[in-house]
Design goal:
- α7 crosses α11.
- Strands 18, 19, 20, 21, 22 and 23 form a six-stranded parallel beta sheet that branches. The chain has a five-stranded antiparallel beta sheet with strand order 1-4-7-16-10. Strands 8-9-17-12 form a four-stranded mixed beta sheet.
- Helix content is about 25%, strand content about 20%.
- This is SUMF1/EgtB/PvdO family nonheme iron enzyme.
- Pfam families: FGE-sulfatase, Flavodoxin_4.
C-alpha cells in the first residue's frame, strides 16, 4: 500500500513518541536504572495520587515490546518496607519476624475479584453469598491460579502458571495475570503505613468488613472493659461489594476484611536472606492467605497477620486479588511442590478431642464410631471452672499452655489424627496447644473438626497448622453447637471427602 508524505510524517511522530514512552518506562522500572524509592508513610499520605496511577490502556514490557492492556489495574511503585510486625505489637505471631523487603513495581487490581468477572471467565460461580459486585469466595487456591491463566489467555497474554498435579511452576517473566506474593500483598496493604492497620492502630466496621463484635484486643477487654480504644462495631455477617468502604492510600479496597485473599506463597518461616521480591518456601502443604474476612476477629485483620490454609480447601471466607508484572522478575522460574506425605491403604486413626460443654465430645464419638478409630480425650490437670470467657481468656492472653492429665500411649502408631475442639476466641483452646506440643506429628495427616457458636473455625485451622509444620493438615469440619439432627450425615460427607472410609 502506498503511503502519502503526511502519513509518513504521522507514523514517524508516533514511533518517536512510542520510543520515548518506552525509554521513560525503562528508566523508572528497570532494576539497573533509577534507585528504588522508599514508600514512606508521610509521602504517600500527603499525596495519594502520587503513590499510584491508573492508566487506560496500561502497558507492560514484554521483551522489547510494550503491549497495551485495558484492565484498569493500579501501578504500584517499587519500594522498600519493613515486612512483619515489631515485637511490641500486641497479639503478634511468632512467625511475623520483622525484616526489610524490597518490592519491584507491579500492577494490582484495586478490588478483590468479583463474582461477575469469575463467572465470565470460569463459567461458574461457587460463592455462598451471591451478587455480581460481591467478591467471589468459596474458591480453592488452585481455582484462583486457573482463573489467572484463563483470564490471561482470554486477553492474549502469556499464562503465568503451569500446573502439574501438586507441582506449580511460575514463569516470573510472563506478562499474564497472577496472585500477589505474600510480600507484595503486605506492601500494598500497608501502602507506606507502619501502624497495625493501614488506617490506624484499631479496627472499626466503618473501615473494614469483619466480625465487629470482636475488635482488636477484645480478648482482654471482654469481661472487664478497661481500654476505651477497644470499641465494638457492626458485624455484617456477610460479604459486601468490592467497591464499598474507603480505599487505602494506594487506592486498594478491602485489604482488611471482606474476604481473606489467597497469595502465591507456601506458608513457612520467613527466609530473612531473601529480601528482593521473595516468593516464599519452595515446598509445603499450606498456602498463605492475608487480610482476614467478614467473619474474622480484629486481630486477624492486622497488616502483618499470616493465615495458612490447605490449597484444596474452599471456604466462604476466602477469595483473591490479581496482579501482573510491570517488569521482568528477578528469577526466571519458581517451582513449588506439595509436601509429600503418604498414607497407608488401611491407616491407623486416632480421634483426639478437647471438650468443655460436651458438643465436641458428641462429634468425636460419632466420628470414632463411624471410622473404628481409637478415641482419646484431652484432659487438663487443672480443668477450667467458672466463667469460661474469663478463664480461657486468661490463658490465651498470657500464652499459657496448661498441663494435661491424659497422654497418648505410642502416638507413633497413628497415621491420621482427627483433632476436635471448640473454637474459642477464633482459635483453639490452649490445652490443645499443649497436646500438639507433646508429640511429633511429622509425616502424619491431621484433620480438624470444631464446634462453635457462630464463628466457624475462626483461624484455628491455620493455628494448628503452624504448630505442627511437619504434618499434612487436611480440610476441616465445623458444626454449630451440638450440630443438630444432620450432624451424622455431614460427618459422613466430610470423611468421604477426606478419603477416610467408614467401617
Amino acid at each position: 500500500m502506498n503511503t502519502t508524505p503526511k502519513a509518513k510524517i504521522l507514523v514517524l511522530v508516533i514511533a518517536l513518541a512510542t520510543l520515548a514512552a518506552i525509554a521513560l518506562g525503562i528508566s523508572f522500572f528497570s532494576k539497573g536504572g533509577a534507585e528504588r524509592t522508599s514508600a514512606s508513610p508521610s509521602a504517600l499520605q500527603q499525596d495519594p495520587a502520587a503513590s499510584s496511577e491508573t492508566t487506560k490502556p496500561d502497558t507492560i514490557q514484554e521483551g522489547h515490546e510494550m503491549q497495551a492492556i485495558d484492565d484498569s489495574l493500579i501501578l504500584i511503585p517499587s519500594g522498600t518496607y519493613q515486612m512483619g510486625s515489631p515485637e511490641s505489637e500486641r497479639q503478634r505471631g511468632t512467625d511475623e519476624t520483622q525484616h526489610e523487603v524490597s518490592i519491584s513495581a507491579f500492577y494490582v487490581d484495586p478490588y478483590e475479584v468479583k463474582q461477575k468477572d469469575y463467572q465470565e471467565v470460569m463459567g461458574e460461580n461457587p460463592s455462598v453469598f451471591r451478587g455480581d459486585a460481591l467478591p467471589v469466595e468459596n474458591v480453592t487456591w488452585f481455582d484462583a491460579v486457573h482463573y489467572c491463566n484463563r483470564l490471561s489467555e482470554s486477553r492474549g497474554l502469556t499464562p503465568v502458571y503451569t500446573v502439574d498435579g501438586n507441582t506449580v511452576t511460575w514463569n516470573r517473566n510472563a506478562n499474564g495475570y497472577r496472585l500477589l506474593t505474600e510480600a507484595e500483598w503486605e506492601y500494598v496493604c500497608r501502602a507506606g503505613t507502619t501502624t497495625i492497620y493501614n488506617f490506624g492502630d484499631q479496627v472499626h466496621s466503618d473501615y473494614a468488613n469483619f466480625e465487629g463484635s470482636y475488635p482488636y484486643l477484645i480478648e482482654e477487654n471482654y469481661v472487664s472493659h478497661t481500654n476505651p480504644e477497644v470499641v465494638t462495631s457492626r458485624n455484617r455477617g456477610e460479604t459486601i461489594p468490592v467497591t464499598e468502604l474507603p480505599p487505602n492510600t494506594f487506592g486498594l479496597y478491602n485489604t482488611h476484611g471482606n474476604v481473606a485473599e489467597w497469595c502465591f506463597d507456601y506458608y513457612g518461616e520467613y527466609d530473612l536472606s531473601s529480601t528482593i521480591d521473595p516468593s516464599g518456601a519452595a515446598s509445603g502443604s499450606l498456602r498463605v492467605n492475608r487480610g482476614g474476612s467478614y467473619n474474622d476477629f480484629g486481630k486477624h485483620l492486622r497488616s502483618a497477620y499470616r493465615s495458612a490454609t490447605n490449597p484444596i480447601d474452599a471456604d466462604q471466607n476466602l477469595g483473591f486479588r490479581i496482579c501482573r508484572n510491570a517488569e521482568a522478575g528477578n528469577e526466571m522460574v519458581v517451582t513449588t511442590n506439595s509436601l509429600d506425605i503418604s498414607t497407608p491403604e488401611n491407616p491407623k486413626i486416632l480421634v483426639a478431642y478437647f471438650s468443655y460443654s460436651g458438643n465436641t465430645e458428641n462429634g468425636a464419638e460419632i466420628i470414632a464410631e463411624k471410622t473404628g478409630a481409637d478415641l482419646f480425650e484431652i484432659t487438663m490437670a487443672n480443668p477450667y471452672r467458672g466463667n469460661i470467657y474469663d478463664v480461657s481468656q486468661r490463658d490465651l492472653m498470657q500464652g499459657v499452655h496448661p498441663a494435661l492429665s491424659s497422654h497418648v500411649q505410642n502416638m507413633e502408631q497413628y497415621d491420621i489424627v482427627l483433632l476436635g475442639y471448640p473454637t474459642w476466641w477464633a482459635t483453639v483452646p490452649m490445652p490443645v496447644y499443649s497436646f500438639l506440643e507433646e508429640y511429633d506429628f511429622s509425616g502424619k495427616t491431621v484433620i480438624t473438626f470444631s464446634s462453635h457458636g457462630g464463628t466457624m473455625f475462626g483461624d484455628s485451622v491455620s493455628d494448628v497448622s503452624k504448630a505442627i509444620p511437619g504434618a499434612y493438615v487436611g480440610c476441616g469440619f465445623e458444626f454449630n453447637y451440638s450440630g443438630g439432627s444432620g450432624l451424622s450425615d455431614r460427618i459422613s460427607e466430610w470423611l468421604s471427602q477426606s478419603g477416610i472410609r467408614e467401617r
